[in-house]
From TrEMBL:
Family, similarity comment: Belongs to the major facilitator superfamily. Proton-dependent oligopeptide transporter (POT/PTR) (TC 2.A.17) family.
Gene Ontology molecular-function annotations: oligopeptide transmembrane transporter activity; symporter activity
Residue spans crossing the bilayer: 28-45, 51-72, 84-103, 118-139, 160-180, 200-219, 330-349, 361-380, 620-643, 649-670
Assigned GO CC terms: apical plasma membrane
UniProt topology in membrane: Multi-pass membrane protein
Tree of life domain: Eukaryota
Function: Electrogenic proton-coupled amino-acid transporter that transports oligopeptides of 2 to 4 amino acids with a preference for dipeptides. Transports neutral and monovalently charged peptides with a proton to peptide stoichiometry of 1:1 or 2:1. Primarily responsible for the absorption of dietary di- and tripeptides from the small intestinal lumen. Mediates transepithelial transport of muramyl and N-formylated bacterial dipeptides contributing to recognition of pathogenic bacteria by the mucosal immune system.
Subunit structure: Interacts (via extracellular domain region) with trypsin.
Record protein name field: Solute carrier family 15 member 1
Naturally occurring in which organism (per UniProt): Camelus ferus
Catalysed reactions, semicolon-separated: glycylglycyl-L-proline(out) + H(+)(out) = glycylglycyl-L-proline(in) + H(+)(in); L-lysyl-glycine(out) + H(+)(out) = L-lysyl-glycine(in) + H(+)(in); L-alanyl-L-prolylglycine(out) + H(+)(out) = L-alanyl-L-prolylglycine(in) + H(+)(in); L-methionyl-L-phenylalanyl-L-methionine(out) + H(+)(out) = L-methionyl-L-phenylalanyl-L-methionine(in) + H(+)(in)
Subcellular location: Apical cell membrane; Membrane
Biological process per Gene Ontology, one example term: protein transport
Length: 708
């Protein structure tokens, strides 16, 4: 062990501060990059939603699988310090490669603003992501364990506090970066063509990673560094394998049973290693139920954000977008970790309740499961307000009269009469086979049948403007607009087609007596301009939309006033969201409390129950539970298609509750150990044996010594 002068500050080793700052920068860098990733895949590379999501989750799972590699390198070859430094260099290069891959002008030789060879960008970004996954994963188990190494015996209290501060740094880094990086992306930059600034947004995390590395190296002289102790992981695997084989060979009755199945390895391996492996396997066994917690926890990025998209983001005077709700988690953590440490735990201890780490983790799982019950309750509230969309073989039709006469339209089983410039209030739902005849009539004219093959599962609008003139338009919206945006389409009642420009989006050639496709806009008031040869110069052609909220859809009918100038009539297709996003705060609060109790404790428990040469192995095991959790989400989301979202939330809550009960039972039978004491005992025994070897006379006592 390379010792150094022990510098301290507030009773903490000074080296800790370098480690915490390093972690803050590294997490800022990682989460900043991750916040952009899905948008980068979607809009720069141009993959669709499902491919982007799959690649994204695969990357996240990979980042939690590589810690095993990091732990191997650290515990058996380079030691924690050198592993952190060398993998941080790999990591920094990966961040730089991703930043370069997002430079549009790299392959944009004709300067038209889109890359000419997208595959070069894809290849570069995949190389970058692979390096990042190796880097971030590889240093993860080392940094927290390396921090724990800095404490002396008897500094358990400070060490536990360190794991809390460490977790705080992780979340402060992720909080600040999820707020800042999206702001950088909306800046515009480029040499030949101006567009969203991905290189800047990816470049800042890359620079921070370099800072993180420099800070860590500056502290080098203060760290306590332990020498790696041979390839632990391989020894562990070999020893377990031998124990199982040996047990299998001696399975007949004539061989005496042994206290623990690992004792079957005693023939070949020394007692110290066997007892260390026993410690590790007992903890690993406890880890089996844990991925279920992470499976729920990781859905706040996907499912809960989609839930927020069906809600209204007007909270008091502030307006928030659905994907900003995730920052609630990080904000709450930064508040909750100190509160838990300084207030809640001491209070519980004062009441005389022994709140052991495993009890804390059980409570954490329970809270997370309650969070999903809360999410289900909110979902039920939202479902009450959601419009009904056609399912299966149904179609929905609404009629819009854009002419100057009153019209009567008869459907199978119902008849509607519409004044000029009006629409039916709701969509009417029909079975596609039953929708046999639709007739349009008006005073003093013949009846006109509507012949149209309606596409099942979709909404349609029947535009009528004279008894014998009509058109059926497929709406193309069979769900609420995503991301809480608002859909707007235009209907043209003029004789020639026109263009509309709204907030920078152009509706090209909206044909006469026809409807455009929907385009989508965030909340607020938008201005739009109508360009048409039919409109005289004196006419006003700049208009303002109504105030758009969240998740609504409207049809703007452009009609002609008596003086020939255009006027706008607004019809509502889908009502805006009414359930407030503030209702998501309870579920975020429950999940965050669960996370603080569960995650911080888990880190510290993994460290405190591991023998000195296997600290990184257990940290990697802990991170492996996160990876498995991510994989569970991919499987469940892929396999179980629930018709009701709330049912899926209830299912997850129930699964976690079951797992929580199982974990509580397993925890009852776990006895806490102090690895340092056990190791000291072995050291003492070895010393005794050594002394006895050098002193050959008293033979009688040595036999009972080895029996112990």
């Amino acid at each position: 062990m390379g010792t150094s002068k022990s510098w301290s500050c507030f009773g903490y080793p000074l080296s800790i501060f370098f480690i915490v700052i390093n972690e803050f920068c590294e997490r800022f860098s990682y989460y900043g990059m991750r916040a952009l990733l899905i948008l980068y895949f979607r809009y720069f590379i141009g993959w669709d939603d499902s491919l982007s999501t799959t690649i994204y989750h695969t990357f996240v799972a990979l980042c939690y699988l590589t810690p095993i590699l990091g732990a191997l390198i650290a515990d058996s070859w380079l030691g924690k310090f050198k592993t952190i430094v060398s993998l941080s260099i790999v990591y920094t290069i990966g961040q730089a490669v991703i930043a370069v891959s997002s430079i549009n002008d790299l392959t944009d030789f004709n300067h038209d603003g889109t890359p000419d060879s997208i595959s070069a960008h894809v290849a570069l970004s995949m190389v970058g992501l692979a390096l990042i996954a190796l880097g971030t994963g590889g240093i993860k188990p080392c940094v927290s364990a390396f921090g724990g190494d800095q404490f002396e015996e008897g500094q358990e209290k400070q060490r536990n506090r360190f794991f809390s501060i460490f977790y705080l740094a992780i979340n402060a880094g992720s909080l600040i970066s999820t707020i800042i990086t999206p702001l950088l992306r909306v800046q515009v930059c480029g040499i030949h063509s101006k567009q969203a600034c991905y290189p800047l947004a990816f470049g800042v995390p890359a620079a921070l990673m370099a800072v993180s590395l420099i800070v860590f190296v500056i502290g080098s002289r203060m760290y306590k560094k332990f020498q790696p102790q041979g390839n632990v992981m391989a020894k562990v695997v070999r020893c377990i394998g031998f124990a199982i084989k040996n047990r299998f060979r001696h399975r007949s009755k004539e061989f005496p049973k042994r206290e623990h199945w690992l004792d079957w390895a005693n023939e070949k391996y020394d007692e110290r290693l066997v007892s260390q492996i026993k410690m590790v396997t007992r903890v690993m066994f406890l880890y089996i139920p844990l991925p279920m917690f992470w499976a729920l926890f990781d859905q706040q990025g996907s499912r809960w954000t989609l839930q927020a998209a069906t809600m209204s983001g007007k909270i008091g005077i502030i307006e928030i977008q659905p994907d900003q709700m995730q920052t609630v988690n990080a904000i709450l953590i930064v508040i909750m970790v100190p509160i838990m440490d300084a207030l809640v735990y001491p209070l519980i201890a004062k009441c005389g309740f022994n709140f052991t780490p495993l009890k804390k983790m059980t409570v954490g799982m329970f809270l997370a499961s309650m969070a999903f019950v809360a999410a289900a309750v909110v979902q039920v509230e939202i479902d009450k307000t959601l419009p009904v969309f056609p399912r299966g073989s149904q179609v929905q039709v609404k009629v819009m009269n854009i002419g100057n006469d009153n019209m009567t339209i008869s459907f199978p089983g119902t008849t509607v009469t519409l004044d000029q410039m009006s629409q039916t209030n709701d969509f009417m739902t029909f079975d596609v086979d039953k929708l046999t005849s639709i007739n349009i009539s008006s005073a003093g004219s013949l009846v006109t049948p509507v012949t149209h093959s309606f596409e099942q599962g979709h909404r349609h609008t029947l535009l009528v403007w004279a008894p014998n003139h009509h058109r059926v338009v497929k709406d193309g919206l069979n769900q609420k607009p995503v991301k809480g945006e608002n859909g707007i389409r235009f209907v043209n009642t003029f004789d020639e087609s026109f263009n509309v420009t709204m907030n920078g989006e152009v509706y090209v050639n909206v044909a006469s007596h026809n409807a455009s496709e929907y385009q989508f806009f965030p909340s607020g008031v938008k201005s739009f301009t109508i360009n048409s040869a039919e409109i005289s110069q004196q006419c006003e052609n700049d208009f303002k939309s109504s105030y758009l909220e969240y998740g609504s859809a409207y049809t703007y009918v452009i009609a002609r006033k008596n003086d020939g100038c255009p006027e706008v009539k607004i019809f509502e297709d889908i009502a805006p969201n009414t359930v407030n996003m503030a209702l998501q705060i309870p579920q975020y609060f429950l999940l965050t409390c669960g996370e603080v109790v569960f995650s911080v404790t888990g880190l510290e428990f993994s460290y405190s129950q591991a023998p000195s040469n296997m600290k990184s192995v257990l940290q990697a095991g802990w991170l492996l539970t996160v990876a498995v959790g991510n994989i569970i989400v991919l499987i469940v989301a892929g396999a179980g298609q629930f018709s009701e979202q709330w049912a899926e939330y209830v299912l997850f809550a129930a699964l976690l509750l079951v797992v929580c009960v199982i974990f509580a039972i397993m925890a009852r039978f776990y006895t806490y150990i102090n690895p340092a004491e056990i190791e000291a005992q072995f050291d003492e025994d070895e010393k005794k044996k050594y002394l006895e070897k050098s002193n050959p006379y008293p033979k009688s006592d040595s036999f009972s010594q080895t029996q112990m």
